[in-house]
Amino acid sequence: MVHPGRIHGYVERKFRDRKLGENVTIIIPVILCPIARAVKTQYTKRLLPEFLIPHSVIRLDYLLEAADLPKAERSEAAVCDLIGCLDPRTVRHQMQRLAMAINAVSLDLTGRRAATPELGELPQISPGTPPEERLAILFDSQIRAGQRAGSAPVAPSVRQLLQAAMGTQGTTKPSNRASSHIHPP
User: Fold this and answer.
1) Are 36 and 47 in contact (CB under 8 A)?
2) Residue 102 near residue 131, CB atoms below 8 Å
3) Is the torsion defined by CA of 70, 71, 77, 79 positive or negative?
4) Against a cut of 0.90, is the pTM above it?
5) What's the gap between Cα 64 and its chain centre?
6) How far apart are CA 123 and CA 138, in angstroms?
7) Backbone angles phi, psi at 20, to 5 degrees
8) Secondary structure string (H, E, C) spanning the chain
9) Whose CA is closest to 148, among 98, 102, 110, 113?
10) Of 20, 81, 98, 109, which cross-links 138 as Cys (Cβ 3.0–4.6 Å)?
11) Cα 12 to chain center, whole Å?
């Protein structure tokens, strides 16, 4: 069901500019759904631009650019320069997040295509296919299947799918009871 939404407010969001070497602030809208609020589910959403990663100042477009580098050129220092970070641990963490998101989106697209074999031949992908290439093949197959089905809605881009997958990573909150001290029952 499509719920009506309205602009609830505008919030500041930061992202890392690699040229400036510092964080830049932009304003993004927050929408509110009164129906979701009435049933006590999540009722606000921040509308991030396609180039941002949820819960991170690192830009998704920079990270995808780094992932496209040939393996020989993808050193931690080169990726640090490309995404605008200073610490190699950030590179490892963000590249790991991206790899997990690529795998999650690829698995989802594979499931969608397997569920609708009548919409065209399933793509032939070998086990040795790089994850980024596998994702591109599956996405293209899903778009063509949607066209065959006559789907009218505009399909999300690969970046939007990755952004959504990265937004759900690590969202489980720790227990408020986690402590090194013993608590009574």
Assistant:
1) no
2) yes
3) positive
4) no
5) 11
6) 7
7) -80, -25
8) CCCCCEEEEEEEEEEEECCCCEEEEEEEEEEECHHHHHCCCCCEEECCCCCECCCCCCEHHHHHHHHCCCHHHCCHHHHHHHHCCCCHHHHHHHHHHHHHHHHHHHHHHHHHHHHCHHHCCCCCCCCCCCHHHHHHHHHHHHHHHHHHHCCCCCCCCHHHHHHHHHHHCCCCCCCCCCCCCCCCC
9) 113
10) 109
11) 20
Q: Are 166 and 104 in contact (CB under 8 A)?
A: no
Contact 84, 22 (CB under 8 A): no
**171-183 pLDDT, tens digit each:** 555 444 444 444 4
pLDDT digits (tens, 9 = 90+) for 66-84: 999 888 888 999 999 999 8
Q: Retrieve residue 44's tokens.
A: 């606000």
How does strand 6-17 pair with strand 22-32? Answer: antiparallel
Nearest to 143 by CA among 158, 162, 131: 158
In degrees, to the nearest 5, what angle opens at C-alpha 14 toward C-alphas 91 and 43?
Answer: 110
Look up residue 77 and give its two tokens. 């220092």
Q: How many residues would you count in the chain?
A: 185
> How would residue 153 be classed by pLDDT, with cut points 50, 70 and 90?
low
